[in-house]
Design a protein that fits this description.
By secondary structure, the protein is α/β, with parallel strands linked by helices. Helices cover about 50% and strands about 15% of the residues.
Length: about 190
């Protein structure tokens, strides 16, 4: 089975096992993830928003446009990386996912990580960071690389934060510039 087929099988299991039925009922569709199954870098956000729910693709709204811009700043495209969220259905009203929703989807995210096996996992925002690095604060951890359980990760502010706080835009771009440097150091 190819990596793409394994990722498709994970998505099929989420639907078949009726993971978070209340979320599924309020969402338009499952937003699994997209990009290269052979990516060296995997980006993990929190949950789909309205535009993502509508199109079935992660990070396609305003925050996604900024993510594309940041990728271009380090000579990458969406097709070069893999982009997903912890929770695969849009929470109603774009609320934060509930702890039980995060817990329900975490095993599937771990499977995605296993299949893709990225050199670097980039957590976009505190919510995704705290699933794996609960002791950290995003204000102190952003832009730094961490090694835990054999995986290297790097938390960054969520691209949407820069839309609401213009001062974070330059910080995010600077942190993003560190991705190739971290990749170069990973053996």
């Amino acid at each position: 089975m190819t990596k793409s087929e394994k990722l498709d099988a994970i998505a099929e299991r989420i639907t078949a096992e009726k993971v978070t039925p209340q979320l599924a009922a309020s969402a338009t569709q499952l937003v699994m993830g997209e990009g290269s199954p052979d990516a060296e870098v995997m980006f993990v956000g929190e949950a789909p928003g309205a535009k993502e729910d509508e199109l079935g693709r992660p990070f396609v709204g305003a925050a996604g446009k900024f993510l594309d811009e940041m990728l271009a700043s380090i000579d990458l495209k969406r097709e070069d990386v893999y982009i997903t969220n912890i929770v695969k259905y849009r929470p109603p009203g774009n609320r934060d996912p509930l702890p039980e929703e995060v817990a329900a989807f975490k095993p599937f995210l771990l499977e995605q990580l296993e299949v893709i096996s990225p050199k670097l996992t980039v957590f976009l925002g505190r919510h995704s960071m705290n699933v794996f690095l609960p002791q950290l604060r995003i204000s102190q951890a952003h832009g730094r690389a961490f090694r835990k359980d054999g995986r290297v990760s790097m938390p960054l502010y969520h691209p949407a934060a820069a839309l609401y706080n213009g001062g974070l835009r330059d910080q995010l771009l600077a942190d993003f510039a560190g991705i190739p440097k971290v990749l170069a150091k990973i053996t």
